[in-house]
Structures are given as structure tokens and as C-alpha cells.
Amino acid sequence: MNRLSQWLFDPVPLARVVLFRRFVYAFVIIDILLLHTSGFRHGWADPVWYQPLIMGEWLNIPAANVPQVMILKWGTVLVAAFALTGRFPRVSGLVVAVGWIWYQYVAFAYGKVDHDRGDFVIALVVLPLIGMAATAGPAGDRTRSELAGFAFRAMQLAAIATYFLSAWAKVRFGGWEWVNSATITRAVIRRGTFIGDWLLEIPWSLHAFQWVLFSAEMLAPVIFFVGEKWRRRMVAAWFVFHAATYSVITIAFWPHLVMMLAFLPLEEYRDRAVARWNSWRGGDSGEPEPQVKTPASPA
């Protein structure tokens, strides 16, 4: 139990919390305004098409109307913009979580539910828990927090569960025919690109891709049993995979990609980027900078 507790509460720098929070709340704004806009349009939909989800049945949520979607959309965007400043992170984070989840509910209560947004809900829920700790210093604060470590571990587990449960659902509902039939071929025909059309001329490639996808999703939990270097490589491989998927069938799991950043040392990448930017601005000529002497300050 001690080893499990140490793993769950493995401390992370507060700088990582600050940077990751900015990615999350920036995505909320982009998602509502540009990526997933059906929730707003459903305010004008006929209530006859409303089909309450489990959450709606538990909370007795009525069908959406125009004032509701207007408040959810613009209210969540404004609070998310405020949350980017880092002020009152607990309150602003909680409001963003409620607003975004409710907005997604309005979108999905009239049609299919996208599974790529389930793990992002976890990020919105756990980030406010460490809000006060995350504002303990600037983005470069290296103070390590166990509470932040638990939040990041929860987000990592949710992200990997998305992969593993997706593979399990494929064989649970589709059977082994999912990987042995023309599943990807059908997707390419419906919404493929010129790259997908080219792969249609090589049928075995799409069949093999189905097995590669299924195997990768089933083996996703391995990421918790490898070293830091291989963990970063696995995350990079997943990003490459999603880029390839988008290039073939134009499907992207945008919120899930944000969640995968929870595995990366964002503060290290930020420091490297700042150092390179300062070096470029300073026009590094290879010569040492002159030393400026200043009088010693009194004790």
C-alpha cells in the first residue's frame, strides 16, 4: 500500500500544473468556439429530439433552449479566459468544469456521444483541487506538490483508460470482426482523404492497420511500467498515430491529445524554448558577454 500511495501521489512541480492548466482552459475556448459547436445549435432544436443521457436522468435536466445555450457558451468561454490568468483558480476552474460538461451534455443528448471527451472531464474536475497550490509561484516554480501529483496521475489513468476501454469496446460490441473485416476501409470510403484513397489500392495495409491500432490500445497501460525516456517516446508515438489517423480519415481526438500532455515535463520544454528564444534574440556570436561590475549591496 505504501508503494501504491507513493506512485499515486508522486509529486510534480507546480510549474507543470500552471502550464498544463493553460493548455486545458485554452482548449475549452477553442473547442466551444470552433471545434464542437453542436451544443449551441441544439438550443433551437425541437425538444422531441431530446434523449436524456444518464446524467440528465439523474439530475432531471430538461431539453435545452436558446437562453440556456447562450449562457453556457459565452459564460464558459469568458470564465475560461479568466481562468487562464491563474486568479481564483478553484472557483473559476469549478465554473468552467460545470459549464463545459453541461455544454457537452446538450450536444450529446441529441445524437451520438464521443468517447474522446470522457478523460478531459477528469482534467476539468481535478485541476480546481490544486488551484491554490498552482498559484504559489510563477510558471517557473519548481516546488513539488503531492496533491498535484495525484491530480496528474488521475489524468494519466483516465487518458490511458480511454485507449484500453476503446479496444475492449471494439471486441465487446463489434466482435473480432472489427479487426478482421473492412472497418477502416468503410471509414475511408465515408470520409477519407487522398491518402486514404491511395491506401484503398493496398487493401492489406488497412487491414494491418486495424490490428496495429487494436494492439496499441490494448498495450497502452504499459506506459506506466517503462522509464521516463520510453514514456516520452510512447507519447510521441501516440501523437504520430493520431496525426496519421487524421490524414487518412480526418478524425481527431482533440481533447484527448491535450490530456496526453499530462505525461510530459512541460516545464522542461518551456525552459528550453525560452533559452533558445533568448539565444536567438541575443544573436549568440559565440563570444562571452562582458561582465558588468556593480557595487556590493549592504548586508
From TrEMBL:
Keywords: Membrane, Transmembrane, Transmembrane helix
Transmembrane segments: 23-44, 64-84, 91-108, 120-138, 150-169, 208-227, 239-264
Protein's recorded name: HTTM domain-containing protein
Domain of life: Bacteria
